[in-house]
Known about the structure:
Layout: H1 10-39, H2 43-60, H3 67-82, E1 93-98, E2 116-123, E3 128-134, H4 139-150
Antiparallel strand pairs: 1-2, 2-3
Helix pairs in contact: 1-2, 1-3, 2-3
Amino acid sequence: YHAQPSQGTEQEKMDYALNNKRRVIRLVLQWAALYGDLLQEDEAAMAFLEEFYVSVSDDTRMIAALKEQLAELEKIVKQVSEEPKAPQKKHKVLLQLFNTSDDRAQKRQPIKGSDEVLFKVYCIDQTYTTIRVPVSSSVKEVISAVADKLGSGEGLIIVKMSSGG
């Protein structure tokens, strides 16, 4: 955020610094907008956002061109810090996509919307069941299929896990 070139005129150095600051602010704005609900649960992320906001706020005193982005940043920081935390759910469910055959033995083919995938659905009580849904299924459709299989849709959440093993 505070990168400075070692060469160039003072105007070139200021333009370089302003462009870098704008890029970093834009990146942080996109990050916070995308992950806002998750950031509120992370103290380090919230501390970073607040510290970053203060830093940008200080810079706007010297660089008026950052004021518009400061207003956006302020709105995001307030929004993230004021969102109420989600209440604890009764049932936490983990969906894990798994392949039923050996990848090496399969010929690589494009995935079609009509192809189906198999999910293992893990419940908090250490049990699991499986569901088969089309690749083109939306999250809502996957949750609906899980609710139908489990007999209840109350408190279902989707968590994605992946592993190199």
